[in-house]
Amino acid sequence: MNLHESPAASLRRQEDAQPQDWEATFRNMALFDLAADMELGFFLSYYRNFAIPTIASTLHSNAEIQQRPMKRSYDTAIVIYELIASGLDSDRGRDMVALLNRVHRNVPGNKDDFLYVLLTLLLVPIRWTQKHSWREPTAAELAAAARFFTELGSRMNIDGMPATYAEAEAFFDAYEAAHVAPSPEGQHLMDATVQVFQSRLPAPLRPLAKHIISTMLDDDRLTAALGLPNSSRTSRAALKTGLIIRNAICRRRPLKEQPHFTPGKAGSSLYPNGYSLDQIGPVNVPHSPAARSNELS
C-alpha cells in the first residue's frame, strides 16, 4: 500500500474512517500516518511492565529478558507489528496469536495483570502521540485502536476487555495507581534492557540512555519504580524542542510511500537478512507442531 498523501489528506481520510474499517484505520495510523511516534510508544510500553512488581517477578523468574534482552525486545515488537500489518485473522496473524497463547499458557498472574500488559500496547503509544506527534490521533483512530486490542484480547481469551478507549483508560490509570512500585526484579529487568536502547543511540549519547528514557517516560513515580534517574528541566526542554522542529518538518512533507514495517523483511541488527516466523519467540517455549510458524518473546 503506497499512500504518498499530504498530511492534510491523510488527516481527512482518518477522520472519515468508518467503524467497520477499524483494522485498516489502525494499520494506517501505526504504519503510515503516525508510525514513528507509535513505534516510540510501543518501545515505552515495554518498559512499563517492569514497574509492576507482580509482572516484574514473573518476567524475572523466566530469565529470558536477562539472558537475551535484544531478542526479547525485537521479537516483542515484531509480533505486534506482524499482527497490525498482516491482520489478526490472516495466516501470519493467526500464527502470532497462537504464539502469544503458547507463551502465556503457563504464566502465573491474575486477569488484571494480563489485561494491563495488553493495554499498555494500546494506551502508551497513543498517549505519546497525543502529546508529541505532528498531529493528534483522530476519534476514529482511537476507536479503531481500542477495537484492535479488544479483538486481540478476545483471541487470547483475556476476559473483561474494555469496550471503549475511555474504559481502557479508566482501567489502566486505576491499575497503575494501585500497583506501580519499585522492586528488585523490575530494576534488574530495566538494567538488562537498557543496553538495547543504548545500541540504537549515537555513541556520545549512550552514557545518557537512562536519562533519555526517564525524560521520555515523563512520570516521576514510574521512573522511581524502574530505578531511573529523574529527568531534568534541560532534558525535557531538549526533547520538546527537538520534537517541535521534527513535527514542523513532518507537516510540510508528504507521508512516506512505504509502510514502517513489512512482514518478514530485514530491519534490525538481530535479523539483518529478514526473518521467518519460526525464528520469533523465546527459546524456552517449544515450537508447536500444529503451527505453520512460531514464537514470540
UniProtKB/TrEMBL annotation:
Q: Which GO terms describe its molecular function?
A: oxidoreductase activity
Please give the InterPro entries that the UniProt record associates with this protein.
MPAB, MPAB/Lcp_cat_dom
Locate the ER-bound oxygenase mpaB/mpaB'/Rubber oxygenase catalytic domain: which residues? 41-240
What PANTHER family would the database entry show?
Answer: ER-BOUND OXYGENASE MPAB_MPAB'_RUBBER OXYGENASE CATALYTIC DOMAIN-CONTAINING PROTEIN, PTHR36124
Q: Mind telling me what this protein is named? A: DUF2236 domain-containing protein
Its source organism is Arthrobacter globiformis
